Amino acid sequence: MKTYILGIESSCDDTSAAVLENNKILCNIVSDQDVHRKYGGVVPELASRAHQQNIIPVVDTALRTAGIKKCQIHAVAFTRGPGLLGSLLVGTSFAKSFALGLNIPLIEVDHLQAHILAHFIQTKEKNRKVPSFPFLCLTISGGHTQIVLVNDYLDMQIIGRTIDDAAGEAFDKAAKILGLPYPGGPAIDMLANEGDQDRFTFPKPKIPELDFSFSGLKTSFLYFVRDRLKENPDFIEQNKADLSASIQKIIIDILMDKLVEAATETGVKEIAIAGGVSANTLIRKRLTETGKELSWNVYIPEFEYSTDNAAMIAIVGYYKFLKKEFADQKVVPYARGRK
């Protein structure tokens, strides 16, 4: 039986819609918002307004691209949270109206769970290798950093998380200090390829168990650059590539140390990464190298499923549809946590 799921993602500044046929992607449409670049970060009010403008054209384009009519959709899945509340309200309201109008099930999706299940999105052309249960997933993005033990599609346990800032925030803050454009993570990644990652060293936080912390590193980097600028006003321009490579290295060191610790404690050798920061060149390289050293089976998402997208929302929707885990019309979005 063919099951068609419409996925809607609007947690931050990307409006996205996707259509799945069972677990196979038919289309994944993403409309980003360039308006935030001049502000150096996402402006929530502008984001929610842009979602209102984009949501109908994006969904219409997704259905047309997939070659599917509205009446063929079996359920609509949407991001309930976490994210920017105004942005989430747009996606939630549209999904509720779409489901009500067609009298089809409404499926709420946790954004972080969706990043993890993005590994199970298949294409019509070929089946990609997917993790076996249980597996560990390092979920890293601008707002979240977690290590999750995944026992089944819908059975996940967070065993480590950041106690303050996320890894993506550390990248963005460092980029802002260096005067790099938004988004900062990709800019640092590109510059780091030209730099010496051992040129500058920064302190690694000592956080117990499997948790992370990046606020101290952000402050340390800020003070380091500030003090050097007092001595040499051209310090950043003369050392931008080395600074990028050095801060990137310490962030990835922190992530990989905790991931290795988690794998050792649990005995799990199926290891995956997910989230926007998983697109970083060094984390992909280090994970692959460490996997070979420790005999892990490593899973790295396709670039198009690393950042926010509706295909990952739809795949969660598919597995929830199979278990008939539906939401009602009273459902409301949440900005933080996991409900």
Please give a structural write-up:
- This protein has 339 residues and is of the alpha/beta class.
- It has helices spanning 44-66, 85-102, 111-117, 167-177, 184-192, 215-231, 235-266, 281-294, 310-322; strands at residues 4-9, 15-21, 24-31, 75-81, 106-110, 135-140, 145-152, 155-161, 270-274, 297-299.
- 42% of the residues lie in helices and 18% in strands.
- Strands 3-2-1-4-5 form a five-stranded mixed β-sheet, sandwiched between helices.
- A hairpin with a 2-residue loop joins strand 7 (145-152) and strand 8.
- The model has no long low-confidence stretch (mean pLDDT 93).
How is this structure best summarized?
With 339 residues, the protein is of the alpha/beta class. It is 42% helix and 18% strand.
**Overall tally of domains:** 2
Helicity level: 40-55%
| First-residue to last-residue Cα separation | 31 Å
Using the alpha-carbon principal axes, give the shape: globular
Based on CA atoms alone, the radius of gyration comes out at: 20 Å
Secondary structure tally, helices: 9
* Assigned CATH class of the largest domain: Alpha Beta
Strand order of the largest sheet: 3-2-1-4-5
Q: Keywords for this structure?
A:
339 residues; alpha/beta; Nucleotidyltransferase, domain 5; 5-stranded mixed sheet; 9 helices; 42% helix; 18% strand; globular
